[in-house]
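Hi support team,

I'm opening this ticket because the web form for multi-chain structure prediction keeps timing out on my end. I have pasted the exact lines I submitted so you can reproduce it. The total is 764 residues across four entries, so I didn't expect it to be a heavy job. Is there a limit I'm missing, or should I split the entries? Thanks in advance, R.K.
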Amino acid sequence: MKRDKLGLDRIIFFSDAVFAIAITLLSLDLRLPANTQQDSVGYDLIRLLPEYQSYATSFIVIGLYWISHHHYFRFIRRYDYLFVAINIGLLMCIAALPFATSVLDTYSNHRSAVAFYALCMMLTGLMKTWLWHYATQNFRLVHRRLSVQRIRLLTQRALIPPLVFAASIGLAMLSPALAKLSWGAIALVFF
Amino acid sequence: MKRDKLGLDRIIFFSDAVFAIAITLLSLDLRLPANTQQDSVGYDLIRLLPEYQSYATSFIVIGLYWISHHHYFRFIRRYDYLFVAINIGLLMCIAALPFATSVLDTYSNHRSAVAFYALCMMLTGLMKTWLWHYATQNFRLVHRRLSVQRIRLLTQRALIPPLVFAASIGLAMLSPALAKLSWGAIALVFF
Amino acid sequence: MKRDKLGLDRIIFFSDAVFAIAITLLSLDLRLPANTQQDSVGYDLIRLLPEYQSYATSFIVIGLYWISHHHYFRFIRRYDYLFVAINIGLLMCIAALPFATSVLDTYSNHRSAVAFYALCMMLTGLMKTWLWHYATQNFRLVHRRLSVQRIRLLTQRALIPPLVFAASIGLAMLSPALAKLSWGAIALVFF
Amino acid sequence: MKRDKLGLDRIIFFSDAVFAIAITLLSLDLRLPANTQQDSVGYDLIRLLPEYQSYATSFIVIGLYWISHHHYFRFIRRYDYLFVAINIGLLMCIAALPFATSVLDTYSNHRSAVAFYALCMMLTGLMKTWLWHYATQNFRLVHRRLSVQRIRLLTQRALIPPLVFAASIGLAMLSPALAKLSWGAIALVFF
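Hello R.K., no limit was hit. The queue was backed up. Here is the completed structure from your submission:
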């Protein structure tokens, strides 16, 4: 269990860099179709609307995960290498989100695509919950004075998104549109 | 409203990383045509001149936005999560600039392309202005001793580019060349 | 031999950034086949299983190298430019690992592919060992009070993976499957 | 002329990130030919030898530029925004080096390719020299106690590579091989 500040800073820095790269790589999917003609640019730019939407959504999703990472890490004081490993597991999920989003965009109404996206989001949420649970168990890596209530509250808030996404995997088999709607429940919890 | 230094540093760091990735990805567009022959390399390298020009322009545009981000953030002392969210919105615009530039390069004299570029630049500028306005309103996130005059001056300077770009969207419908010329007005303000 | 903190921080930072980019670029290989039909998405997503596996493995391998880099650098106190150069050599190996993994994935049972992967891993491990050996020789760049036993232990642990991988290059000529199995020996040492 | 530490740190950090991305993107050029057959992997991996060589060379060239950036920036104490702008100009050259290298690799014995590479390297070197000259002129951004001799020595060392590359542009017209050989003169100066 290390307390060295530089060591913890490197972990945070490394996470930030992965988040930043994953979020910026999203822009690589913004592309005019190769066969665009000079006189149809305007039309083609408008036809890309779903691509802009998907770019914005993914950017916001990864952005929110980064904000959440930022928020939870403010309570971390020490680290051990299992903690680092779980954090890398979380980053592995984050770096895969652009792929999950592109699947959802290309086949937005297909049940498999919706279920796949929900699965990825569920895994990401579980990783985050595990990271937080591991860090706070018996105040392992957080400050002693962090109140038990606050720890529990943050655990619950971390747990809600993956639970909703898990439920929506089954729902997607019945109706992809309903499953997507259910994701809105997460927003309701936080606002 | 947090004052923790590491928290603010992470926000700045994350922004820098997104800027750095967006600016470096520009170089991915520098490519020899696939069908280059051994004996026409020299000619092909010269024919890429518009690509070099566009690379340099985009690099400078994103670079200037980074300098401006750097400049404005020197006055930020605290943060809250709405501020972080607006900043992510700004980064979303920045990361999309390479796409906007590539559209402008490919169809440089087409009114839709010019208008689209102006639209992106306008959104980026508005985001920056919003970020600054939010931070300085009632000295929310800046130092109390920052003079009201300076805040107002910086707000005005932030507002000029998006206003010019907004006007140039209409202008582009009449004449793309004129619209591009009008962008020069921004430079006049700053030098 | 410099002791300036910022200088050392930049070296660490630069390394972290290269690790982060290499690890995030892995996700670029996650792609649905171009000819996916609307009604076979589910099937296609399942057929990508080897790609997910390879993504996870590569992520973990580079992640472990980063953890190890993090662990060893905690003992570094100073730097000179030969140390920086060896570190860049190590980063050169790290940045090439995604390529080595993609070779192994595409031809997973082919002896050349297995031998090539083992060769890359061996070079990476040797670079890391060299870096550590250079830094600790006569306490060149580490703290005087770091015990000789600990230095030796860390050298030995750094040396085991490249030795196993070197042996597995020969083994791969006889049996690629056996060579891959032998890599498991590394895990045995560390757990 | 600012002295704020965070401001200077951000400039250094941003530069490091651009260097790190440019250097890591080099690995994207390592690719097996698309038509590789299962039974020719070994042969194909060997046939990629020029690609490995070019990867290593580019990695070393950008790495050396980073080391040099690291070395020169140790003397910088303050910054102004013209300094930041010149630094962005230098980064623009750095981010273009992977393209220059790929041109040189694909047409290694063609005079235009050699001249183009020399031109890029010359521009990069001149940018670095300009940055240093600007920072040290009348001790503008460096510590007063930095000796004039040291400043001059570092200026001269910064100036040698661009001068050699400039001369080699003309030489490349006569003999590309001779031009490449002349680049070795730079190494002679530094070792």
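A quick check on our side: Chain C touches chain A at residues 9, 12-13, 16-17, 19-21, 23-28, 30-32, 36, 38, 41-42, 45, 55-56, 59-60, 63, 66-67, 70-71, 74 (CB under 8 Å). Let us know if the file doesn't open in your viewer.
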